[in-house]
Amino acid sequence: MNRRRLMQTLMAPKKKTKANSKTKKTDKEELAPAEDQFEIISIEDLTEDEIREVVPNLIQVDMEKSSPRAINFCGDLNEESASAIISAMIYHNHNNRLVMVNEQQTKQYHAVKPMQFYISTFGGNAADMFGIHDLMVSMKHSTPIETVGLGNVMSAGVLLLASGAENSRFIGENTRVMIHSLRAGHAGAMHELETEYEETRWLQDQYVQALSRVTNMSKRMIKKMMERKTNVYINAEQAIEYGIADKILKPSYWDEGE
C-alpha cells in the first residue's frame, strides 16, 4: 500500500466527535487560523510509521465543500467531452489541498487530495486524447490522478488509462482493452491528401511513443500490434501484464478511498 492510500485508510473510519458535529461556523473557523500560528508539516515528509501514529488523531479542516473528486468519462472522445474532462481536471488540481490539525491545534498537516478518472470509451479524436494526456502528465507532481478502466477501454482510452499515477491505475475484472492503428478518412486535392496522410502518420508515431513511455510495452511491440491491421483485444490480466493498468478493481478500493 502506498503512502497516500495508507493515509486514506487511516482517515476513512474516523467520525466526527459529538463536539465537532455541533460546532458552529465560528468554531469551525477557529480550527483554521492563519498558517503562521501553526507549525506547518507536509504529510509527504512523514514516514509510514509516523503516518500511522499521527493521522488517526488529526482533525480535517474543510477548505472546500466535501464532494467526490471524480471525473466520469463514458462515451466517445470528442471536442465536447475533452473540454469537460480538461475543465474538471484543472478545477480538481487547483482545489487539491487537504489540511488537518492536531487536537492541540499547534500543528497543521498538509497533504494533497487525489482525483479519480473513470474511463469507459470506444475511443475518439487523437488530438483531444493528447490534450488530456499532456495535461495529466503536467499534473503528475501536483495532483495524483487515479485512473479506473471499466467496460470498454479502447483506442484513445488506453493511453488515458495508462497515464494515471504510478500504482494507481485500476481496471475492472471484465473490462476489455483494445489497441489498433489510427484511422483517418480524407477527401480533397492530392496535395491535401498527402499532407493529411503525413499528419496521421505523425499522430500514430506520437501515440506509440506516448504509450511505450507509460506502459511495459516497447515501441516495437506496439507497432507489431498495429501492423496486424485489425483490432487487438486484451483482457484485464493482460492489461496489467503489459503495464496499461496496475491492479484489478476490488471491493477494498472503496474501503480505502476517500
Polypeptide structure, described:
This protein has 11 helices and 11 strands. It has about 260 residues and is an alpha/beta fold. The chain has one domain: 2-enoyl-CoA Hydratase, Chain A, domain 1 (Alpha-Beta Complex), CATH 3.90.226. Strands 3, 6, 7, 8, 9, 10 and 11 form a 7-stranded mixed beta sheet that branches. The chain has a 4-stranded mixed beta sheet with strand order 1-5-4-2, with no helix packed on it. The chain is elongated, with a radius of gyration of 22 Å. The protein starts with a helix and ends with a helix. Mean pLDDT is about 80; it is low at about 15-35.
Tell me the CATH superfamily.
Answer: 2-enoyl-CoA Hydratase, Chain A, domain 1
Kindly provide the radius of gyration, computed on alpha-carbon positions and rounded to a whole number of angstroms: 22 Å
Number of helices: 11
Structural class by secondary-structure content: alpha/beta
Segments where pLDDT lies below 50 for 5+ residues?
13-33
How confident is the prediction overall: mean pLDDT?
81
Tally the structural domains. 1
CATH class: Alpha Beta
Helix content: 40-55%
Q: Determine the strand fraction and express it as a percent band.
A: 15-25%
Query: Which architecture per CATH?
Result: Alpha-Beta Complex
Give a quick account of the main beta sheet: strands, pairing sense, barrel closure. 7 strands, mixed
Give helix and strand order, one letter per element, not per position: HHHEHEEHEEEHEHEEHHEHEH
Compute the separation of the termini in Å.
15 Å
CATH topology: 2-enoyl-CoA Hydratase, Chain A, domain 1
Q: What gross morphology would you assign? A: elongated
What is the number of E strands?
11
